[in-house]
């Protein structure tokens, strides 16, 4: 079997808007209380969601922290985003670039939420 490099892959399978999927499904615990942010004249509720999985019995659970941006237009209550609450979210990955105080280009990856549901009665909060 031939070894393909990135250039060959793009030649074999052309990528265009109709063939790509950017979909995220998460179930996790709200890490901190949410706060409101204004981004480009639109209100968003910002919070961090923590998910965990057991990779091996020796190492214990692996925790992953996700930054969520929830459009204000779909938020029914801030209480649903209280610390320790359990959320199911659907959305897409969004990466933005910015320059830090030293002028170094940095990247921030967030989940832009399109739909969510509380699941507080299903899972126990993370201690």
From TrEMBL:
SUPFAM superfamilies: Nucleic acid-binding proteins. Keywords: DNA-binding. The keyword DNA-binding applies. GO terms for molecular function: single-stranded DNA binding. It comes from the Bacteria. Pfam families: SSB. This is Single-stranded DNA-binding protein. It comes from Mucilaginibacter terrenus.
């Amino acid at each position: 079997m031939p070894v393909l490099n990135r250039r060959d892959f793009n030649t074999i399978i052309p990528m265009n808007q109709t063939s790509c999927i950017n979909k995220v499904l998460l179930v996790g615990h709200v890490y901190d209380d949410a706060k409101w942010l204004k981004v480009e004249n639109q209100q968003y509720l910002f919070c961090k969601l923590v998910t965990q999985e057991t990779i091996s019995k020796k190492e214990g659970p692996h925790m992953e922290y996700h930054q969520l941006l929830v459009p204000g237009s779909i938020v029914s209550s801030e209480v649903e985003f209280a610390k320790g609450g359990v959320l199911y979210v659907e959305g897409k990955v969004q990466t933005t670039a910015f320059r830090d105080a030293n002028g170094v280009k940095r990247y921030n990856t967030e989940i832009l939420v399109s739909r969510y549901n509380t699941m507080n009665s299903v899972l126990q909060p993370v201690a």
